[in-house]
Amino acid sequence: MFDGRKIILASQSARRRELMKYVFDSFEIIPSNADETPPEGIGAEEIPEILAVRKALDVAKDSPEALVIGCDTVVLLDGVIYGKPKDEDDAFKMLRTLSGRTHTVVSGVCFCCLKKTMSFTQKTAVSFYELSDSEIFDYIRPCPPLDKAGSYGIQDRGGLFVREINGDHYNVIGFPIARIKRELERFENMIGGRN
Fold it and tell me: Residue range 146-153: average pLDDT?
């Protein structure tokens, strides 16, 4: 796929980097410097895709011939966005709020190449068990989850909080790789991805 074309992941997430290897043997990491302030008057579920587009376009400015992949992930509950926590106290409050409830993980993904873009949104419902304060403290104290939307990683000990998932497991990690592969095939056909 996209033979002979430079591939860029516009993210410094170690988890996205590992999942990207499922599709591409070789790619570059160039984090975006795009403004991640959510636009006013936009529904919460639309924001990740808008930010993913911003990130991809920001990196594509300097590499218009490359395939650039941007992504943004948030946790939503009752219309409120739970992004990355500011500190341990914020992480504790988020996990206390998510305890015993079902939230939605929403990822926006954007591909950009040759001044053309394609984007989509993927959603996964995640239900947590009831969490005790000690469970939450034991999770966040050794290695605070300050780089994770919603203050947990399903791929680490945060997976112990999860009672049920309805949807794509990899989307909860922040990179819905199975759908990404299929949408990339469509995008390649759209732009004629070979040099």
Answer: 91
CATH of residue 73's domain is 3.90.950.10
Residue 2 lies in a domain: no
pLDDT, tens digit, 9 for 90 and up, residues 20-34 = 999 999 999 999 999
Average pLDDT over residues 154-165: 95
Q: Following DSSP, what letter does each residue of the chain receive, concatenated?
A: --TTS-EEE----HHHHHHHTTT-SS-EE-------PPPTT--GGGHHHHHHHHHHHHHHTT-TTSEEEEEEEEEEETTEEE-S-SSHHHHHHHHHHHTTSEEEEEEEEEEEETTEEEEEEEEEEEEEPP--HHHHHHHHTTS--TTSGGG--TTTGGGGGEEEEES-HHHHHT--HHHHHHHHHHHHHHHT---
Largest Cα–Cα distance of the chain, in whole Å? Answer: 56
- Domain extent for 38: 7-191
Does 195 have pLDDT greater than 80? Answer: no
Which residue in 35, 33, 36, 32 sits closest to 10, CA to CA?
32
Tell me which residues are annotated as active site.
72
Question: Would residue 1 count as lying in a domain?
Answer: no
pLDDT at 143: 81
Per-residue model confidence as pLDDT tens digits over 170-193:
999 999 999 999 999 999 999 874
